[in-house]
Amino acid sequence: MTKLDLLVIAASAVSSISLCWLVFAVLTDGVGWLLFWVVAYFVFLAIYFVASYDRVGWLGAVDRVVTVAVSSAMVIVLIPLVWLVSYIIIKGLPALRPSFFVHDQRGVTPTMPATAGGGLHAIVGTIEQVGLALLWSLPLGAATAFFLNESRSRLRRPVRIFVDAMSGMPSIVSGLFIYATLIIPLAKTNDLFSFNGFMASLALSMTMMPTICRAIEVVLRLVPNGLREAGLALGASRAKVVLSVVLPTASTGVATAAILGIAREAGETAPLLFTAFGYNLMNANPFHGPQESLPLFIYRFVRTQSTADIQRGYAGALVLLMLILSLFIVARIIGRDRSVANKRPIRLRLPRRSSAPETTEPKLISSTSGRSGAVTAAGGS
Amino acid sequence: MNPPEVSMNHRAIADDNKIADASAKEKGEAAAADGQKAAPTLIGGPPPGAATLEARDACAWFGENLVLEGVNLTMVAGEVTALIGPSGCGKSTFLRLLNRMHELVPGAAMAGDILLDGDDIYGADMRAQTIRTRIGMVFQKPNPFPAMSVRQNVLAGLKLTKIRCSDQDALVERSLQRASLWREVRERLDSPGGALSGGQQQRLCIARSLAVAPNVLLMDEPCSALDPSSTRRIEETIIELRNEVTVVIVTHNMQQAQRVSDKCAFFLAAENQPGQLVEQGPTTRIFSSPEDPRTADYVGGKFG
């Protein structure tokens, strides 16, 4: 983009806003602010098209308008994300002190300031529950993925449909399932099946397993078939090829899949409601007694009336956000390794148009010379 | 067949290629290495020496589709047999019949016998895995295992099967020397196999196949993805492997077939007809005085 391009964009934006202001604020009674900006945006695109058409002709103008439209779509998509993250940071940061990571809520009353106490019990609970859930679902999910991709069974199709259906299951249903099938009938006789972190991990693993399975299956599909054939041609059995050739080749991708599965499950609240139940104090034993987790911590505190408690909830949300963000960063770092999961198709990129025809062209041009300008512009691109 | 002329072909390659000096030097090193170390022995591997492969009335199907019909061909122990013919005539399918890779394709079927030193490899008491250790294969596209180093790639056959070796270092060195790759990679045996160039990767795949000491080596257009100098080095390797191992090579390159092979088999498929073996015989005769007019047209460059 040259300075002139930016100038044209800015001028189009200013004239569109002015025009809309003239129409809506001066000549008519006006519309709401949202409609004002929506109309102004489309007027801007129209003005920009006309201005570009005058300079570079039809092709160039369409190209520019689409470029601007796509870029602004990206900005629009980015707004909620930036808003959300900054909102949580602004609300949570004042209540977040290093003590948050070392204390639980022992002796904390709603009237105490938000910096009193902490969320260590919730962090420990989340780590234990998600860790246990990973322990159950990674072997099962990986085994299912290998079954789907490496075996030649006729059952692959039904299993794949089943996995797809399971990955779309509402997470509260998995919590309800564990509650109804294990906790209600067995809790009275066996302490292991009452509200605790273990039950929560089972509920979490029900939503985690299909996620991990599908992620690993995608990675396995990226392992070239030539490698499997090479292994088989050396006299290896199918199982040996999977273990010694396919798995090492896909290992970084499998690790990435596992971490993304963790990141997703760490934010799940619904499966924990009837299983981990939540607890205000530290309970490091996931197999006995109710346990807190970060989503439950947020859920309970943000709903209260006390300002300090609400702030505590936001501090918990910020910690959860940081936890998930750091997991994503770890996943990216692992995935960047020479993994097959990291091989992307070559991106098509159009070379930038040279600005020569635009600057040399006379300012006033007839429609025919404008089109010839478009041809030169297109030829340059 | 006409032995003097064949060996003249071989010498012609050696003469006009500088790389030949390198491989000669390499052979000197190999001899020196042999003097120092005992040749590595494999335990549980294939029986030593080259083996004869014989196809009797071999047919192949993909689903309901008959793609290869009634092939009778003997690939003599220690000789290089080239399979030539236009695309889609069943050469590669025939090659994959020879080490039971054909059956890995869903819906694939075959009929007839493939005899390895007289034993039917499709016999009821034959395991496909044992057959594939005895009959190695090099593919069109180089496919070293990306998660393994150069050394691990060469030893992959041991890791993947029950073959054991007394001296793995010596085996790596010898296998890479036989594939004329040792000199180029001996400094970086622990770098990943995928970091080599295309030609080096293909020679690494040859070394990997040779490490388990197969009786037969099948090559499915091994040079079609490579540049001329890599092609030349692989052809030299093939020529050096004669007598030690039976080589069956599929090639689209007539000159390559003439340079490396002792026997030649010409496959052809008419439109919507299964592929058939049209003519076979010593390479020099196939190229100088083919009996079948279709062979003459193909080797003369009239089609294909």
Description:
The complex is a heterodimer of chains A (381) and B (304). Chain A has helices spanning 3-27, 33-92, 120-150, 156-167, 171-186, 197-222, 225-233, 238-266, 270-273, 294-302, 307-336, 356-360, 367-380. With 381 residues, chain A is mainly alpha-helical. Chain A folds into two domains: 3-93 and 354-380, no CATH class; 101-342, MetI-like (MetI-like fold), CATH 1.10.3720. The radius of gyration of chain A is 29 Å and the shape is flat. The two termini of chain A are 13 Å apart. By secondary structure, chain B is α/β, with parallel strands linked by helices. Chain B has a single domain (3-299), classed as P-loop containing nucleotide triphosphate hydrolases (Rossmann fold). Chain B is built from 13 helices and twelve strands. Chain B has helices at 3-15, 19-36, 91-98, 128-134, 150-154, 156-160, 168-178, 182-185, 198-211, 228-241, 254-260, 283-288, 293-299; strands at residues 42-43, 53-62, 65-75, 80-84, 108-116, 119-120, 135-138, 164-165, 216-220, 246-250, 263-268, 276-282. The longest helix of chain B has 18 residues, at 19-36. Mean pLDDT of chain B is 85; it is low at 1-20 and 30-38. The chains are: A mainly alpha (381), B alpha/beta (304). The interface between A and B is medium-sized, with 22 and 30 residues.
